[in-house]
Known about the structure:
globular; mainly alpha; single chain
Amino acid sequence: xxxxxxxxxxxxxxxxxxxxxxxxxxxxxxxxxxxxxxxxxxxxxxxxxxxxxxxxxxxxxxxxxxxxxxxxxxxxxxxxxxxxxxxxxxxxxxxxxxxxxxxxxxxxxxxxxxxxxxxxxxxxxxxxxxxxxxxxxxxxxxxxxxxxxxxxxxxxxxxxxxxxxxxxxxxxxxxxxxxxxxxxxxxxxxxxxxxxxxxxxxxxxxxxxxxxxxxxxxxxxxxxxxxxxxxxxxxxxxxxxxxxxxxxxxxxxxxxxxxxxxxxxxxxxxxxxxxxxxxxxxxxxxxxxxxxxxxxxxxxxxxxxxxxxxxxxxxxxxxxxxxxxxxxxxxxxxxxxxxxxxxxxxxxxxxxxxxxxxxxxxxxxxxxxxxxxxxxxxxxxxxxxxxxxxxxxxxxxxxxxxxxxxxxxxxxxxx
Length: 415
């Protein structure tokens, strides 16, 4: 579990990892992946309890999607850039596949979720401090340190990713904590004094998400909060809960940072938010490329190079340098084609179904884990409508967590 926990933490706090490995010949990501792969292989060599007898459908879907991405790459025009993309995708999928072997009990799953929640708490604290002081504590990359809106700098917390991507990883941690905290009366946390810790993570995490001014992450947060509220739909106080939630959201508007309010009010105002032209252009170019190669797509990692071709140079908001398609689902359809998109969507759907099955477990601990994973996955998938995250490490780690929760639930049933 140690390499897997380290990977889950450093995937969100990669700026800290980059600082630690700055003078080393190998980065923390490479070290963590090597240790993770080595320990996973050792599990096949040492005596161990009987493995889970649950289905391997999730792992097969993920492997099939990657194989199709490789096939699509062989037919693509820009293979060198596609090879770099496949390397990134493989690095994101490898820990997810290792998780299926390592995390074979709810107790181990609990430790993994705690590590992701703890990483989110650290990142949230960094965001709050940076917002109040106007400094940068650990982030060093250009993407993390130069982003802003209307002259106001945006914090990426403990990550070297751009602030929006960092906010969506923080979103996962907040929804994991929130889903665990509000898992229903019959799924209480028991004697473990964890409620104050989870409540604290939710509080500082929501505050940090507000400070990041990431619209997609906040929309995902609202979607996750809606799923949590629906878990109480059979309670008599559910209508009151909905009304109180709506009143709280409206009442919080005067206290929100002006930058965040401006970013939301700019939606639909092309004069205030020039990026709206660019985002619509992403979708138009992606749709045109998908229609040109509907079966196997243009190839993984190829969209940015098609984006800068002369064919699309007059489209409004198009920039002269490569850009990603800011919609995960259209991005998958454009680069992977219809077959790859179906495999991608099938994997996500299977993960959501697995989390739902885990929620029905008679064991309160597993039911809590399933609800937390399902809520976080729904929130992240909603946020993915606005970002190109089909190779995001936290996406595939969370997909594997949801699938494994379902496998643990199936393992409780008779063979």
